[in-house]
Structures are given as structure tokens and as C-alpha cells.
Specification:
The protein is of the alpha+beta class. It has helices at residues 16-26, 40-46, 105-119, 131-134, 179-186, 188-202, 217-224, 227-230, 236-244, 282-286, 312-327, 341-349; strands at residues 7-10, 59-63, 66-79, 85-96, 124-128, 140-141, 147-148, 158-162, 172-176, 207-211, 253-260, 263-272, 295-302, 331-334, 353-355, 358-362. The chain has 12 helices and 16 strands. A hairpin with a 2-residue loop joins strand 11 (253-260) and strand 12 (263-272).
Length: 363
């Protein structure tokens, strides 16, 4: 890991829109089992004027004058065994632009802010995060201190950092984050309104791809049964099984939801054909058995009828090809249902050539 030359400074009010965009991009591809949606940028929006935010502990990281990272702290509490409440602090979201991941930016923001928090007299930090990452920075499982979540359970991702040794002695129960954390995850209407406004402001008239999350599974199912999709996707149960098992048997598939100005309009995916040999016929046609990481395939659909016949199919293919080029793919092969002229037009417009009963493109 090569570290960057960065400058850390306090967050300023006029950083807000830049930080919204940064937070959106930072969490765009984060996925884990059960993740309902990406709402970190919504959380940042809700916290903008929250009394729980600690402005003195909100910092940005800059590289060559550009903001590439951000950390934000809020007040939190835990209840001791004797019923008394003790003050703690919490950070999040911690955001770093994907281009600068694994370059020490997040670590620098944490180290800088924890030092400042200790100087300000704060006693302990409580977070929920990735144990493998945060434990390297000195965070420890809350369970070690006898600290539980508000429902009395332990969670590996619930971790603490004592700024004053012994402050957490005796344990207790977490008794409250800033209320905006709960609202970010539960206010579906508020999220949808905010996200659409955000996308129209930051990505006007643009098609975008984002990771498929748990809340999207039902949406794709609805699309699969619409007449204009069902005509070509004739085995919806098979597709739904792939989505439900995307963290298991079908983890070799990379799924996306297609949005237009924040409105989900379609679905697409790519996969390494080497992993799909037991599910596809590509080994017979293209000899993929010894070509891991070389030959890929793609699929896509426009689910919302109002967005058909607007050229989005070709644009989706272009996005997928760009991602595959970054991965180092050498060839992309696609088999379409006979008569699916819209899909064929998108492939031909992207440079694919017909080979027997499928289409092929050398990258």
C-alpha cells in the first residue's frame, strides 16, 4: 500500500455538496449480505444541521487541493450496570473516494481525529464497522468490555476505542446513537425523495449503475414478470435464485441496478465465463475451461416501460464494457433470445460481431 501526501483540515460549511458527492461515490459498491440499500449520503444529509454532530471532530482529507476523504463525529451514550448514562462519541460515515482506497487516507483521518478527541476530553468511541479493518487501528470488540447493543445482544461489528483507559470498565448497554442513523435506514419516502434530488443535481440527464442491494430484489422480480421482459427472460425463477444466492453459489456474478436521475429503470450484470461452466454452454463454444479472467458475458434489461426505446440499452452495454476493460477482460460473448432485435442492435452498435448463434467482441 503506497501512502499519499495528504492534508487534513477541519470541515467547512461550503464543503457540504462536495462531501455529499464523495460519500455517494465512496459507498457505491459496498455490499454485504442483508445490506438493504446505500443510504450513507442520505445520512450525511440528515446530519447536516443535527445537534448531535461535533463540528470540531469533522475533518476532510485533501490531496493536491481536492477533497478525497471525510470523517464525521456525533455524540452517543451507553448505560452502565448501575443505570447511569455515560457519554461517548461515534464516527461515521467515514468516506474515501474509491480511487484512493488502500492508500492510508481513512487511517490518517481516524488517527488525526482520535488524537483531537482525546485532547478535547472525550473518553471513548463506539462504532459499528468492519472488524478486520478497525481492529488493526486499535479498536476492540465491545463484548470484551461487556458492552452490548441496545437490544442486549453482542455483535462482532460493534467495537470500541478507549481514549481514557478504564472508562468502559464494568460494561453496560449502548443506549443511543444520533436519531438520524435510524431515520436514514427507515425513512423510505424521505430517502427516495432525497436520492432523486441528489442525482438530478449531481448527475443530471445521466444513466448510472450502482450495486444491487437487498431492497432491489423485489423490484427486479416485478420487472421479470412484465410482458416486455418476460418475453425474453423466460425463466424468472432461475434469475431470482441467482439474485438470492448472489453472496453464495452465484457470487461470481456482479449485479447492478441501472438508474436514470435516481430512478431505478433496469438491471444488468457481468460474469467471468470460467466460473459459469456448470451453468452455461460457453465451455463447448468458446473453450473457457483454461481461460479464467479472460472471457466474460453480460446481461441487461430495461424494466420500466417508460424508458424503452431511448437508447439506454446501448449505453448500459458501454458501461459494462468499460468495467470489463478495467478488469482486464480479453473477450465478451453474449447469447440473446432469437428475435430480440433491441438487444441485437445494442450489441452491434457496441462493436459485437455475430459468431454462430452468439455475439462476440474482442477487447
Amino acid at each position: 500500500m503506497s501512502k499519499l501526501d495528504i492534508t487534513i483540515r477541519s470541515e467547512r460549511p461550503n464543503d457540504y455538496h462536495t462531501l455529499l458527492n464523495l460519500t455517494y461515490k465512496a459507498f457505491l459498491t459496498l455490499d454485504f449480505p442483508g445490506r438493504p440499500r446505500m443510504d450513507e449520503h442520505f445520512l450525511l444529509h440528515l446530519l447536516q444541521h443535527s445537534s448531535h454532530v461535533i463540528p470540531e471532530l469533522c475533518f476532510v482529507a485533501e490531496h493536491n487541493g481536492k477533497i478525497i476523504g471525510h470523517i464525521l463525529y456525533t455524540k452517543s451514550k451507553f448505560k452502565r450496570g448501575d443505570g447511569s448514562e455515560a457519554d461517548t462519541i461515534t464516527f461515521g460515515p467515514l468516506s474515501v473516494l474509491p480511487k484512493y482506497h488502500r492508500k492510508g487516507v481513512g487511517t490518517a483521518l481516524i488517527q488525526h481525529s482520535t488524537t483531537k478527541a482525546q485532547e478535547m476530553g472525550f473518553m471513548a468511541i463506539l462504532i459499528v464497522g468492519v472488524p478486520e479493518y478497525y481492529q488493526k487501528l486499535g479498536f476492540k470488540p465491545a463484548q470484551k468490555y461487556g458492552l452490548t447493543l441496545a437490544d442486549g445482544t453482542f455483535l462482532d461489528a460493534f467495537m470500541v476505542y478507549e481514549l481514557s483507559p478504564g472508562y468502559l470498565q464494568g460494561g453496560g448497554m449502548h443506549s443511543g446513537w444520533a436519531p438520524e442513523f435510524d431515520k436514514a435506514g427507515s425513512d423510505d419516502t424521505g430517502y427516495e425523495e432525497f436520492h432523486r434530488t441528489f442525482m438530478m443535481e449531481h448527475f443530471p440527464k445521466q444513466l448510472t449503475l450502482r450495486t444491487l442491494y437487498e431492497n432491489d430484489v423485489a423490484l427486479v422480480k416485478r420487472w421479470l414478470y412484465l410482458p416486455h421482459v418476460a418475453k425474453w427472460y423466460k425463466h424468472p425463477d432461475h434469475w431470482m435464485n441467482e439474485l438470492r444466492e448472489r453472496h453464495g453459489e452465484f457470487s461470481f456474478l456482479t449485479h447492478f441496478i441501472v438508474e436514470y436521475e435516481g430512478i431505478p429503470i433496469g438491471f444488468c450484470q457481468y460474469y467471468d465465463c470460467w466460473f459459469s461452466q456448470q451453468h452455461e454452454v460457453w465451455n463447448e463454444k468458446c473453450n473457457v475451461s483454461n481461460k479464467q479472467g479472460e472471457i466474460y458475458s453480460i446481461d441487461s434489461l430495461i424494466g420500466e416501460p417508460d424508458y424503452l426505446r431511448r437508447g439506454f440499452g446501448t449505453e448500459i452495454v458501454r458501461f459494462l464494457l468499460e468495467k470489463l476493460c478495467i478488469l482486464g477482460a480479453k473477450k465478451v460473448i453474449v447469447q440473446t433470445e432469437e428475435g430480440n432485435e433491441a438487444a441485437v442492435r445494442s450489441l452491434l452498435a457496441s462493436g459485437f460481431l455475430k459468431v454462430d448463434d452468439y455475439y462476440s467482441l474482442n477487447l
